[in-house]
Amino acid sequence: MKFMIVLACLLAVAFANEEADVLKSDSEVNVLDFNYAYELSNHIRAVQSGALKEHDNWVVSGEYEYLAPNGKTIKVVYHADETGYHPKVVEA
């Protein structure tokens, strides 16, 4: 369930600027794991992968980045598991 929340947030960021062109879009969704990546022409990029562990616990990791209004690239690397969502902002 957690990965769905993260995915929804990332998609909301991606589609906030509807004028962006899709430069890259890859995904693979299986019963026990998934991964996807996309890149838009407005400097938004994201990758995420996850796997089902122990019947109902998803372990998800990924990163996304975007260009802030001040011109700096903001990059967030995250890991989500049964203990919660653990994001970290890193220099991009």
TrEMBL record:
Keywords: Cuticle, Signal. It holds the Pfam family Chitin_bind_4. One of its GO terms (molecular function) is structural constituent of cuticle. The keyword Amino-acid biosynthesis does not apply. Residues 1-16 form the signal peptide. The keyword Signal applies. InterPro entries: Casein_CS (IPR031305), CHIT_BIND_RR_consensus (IPR031311), Insect_cuticle (IPR000618). It comes from the Eukaryota. This is Larval cuticle protein 9. It comes from Drosophila kikkawai. The gene is Lcp9.
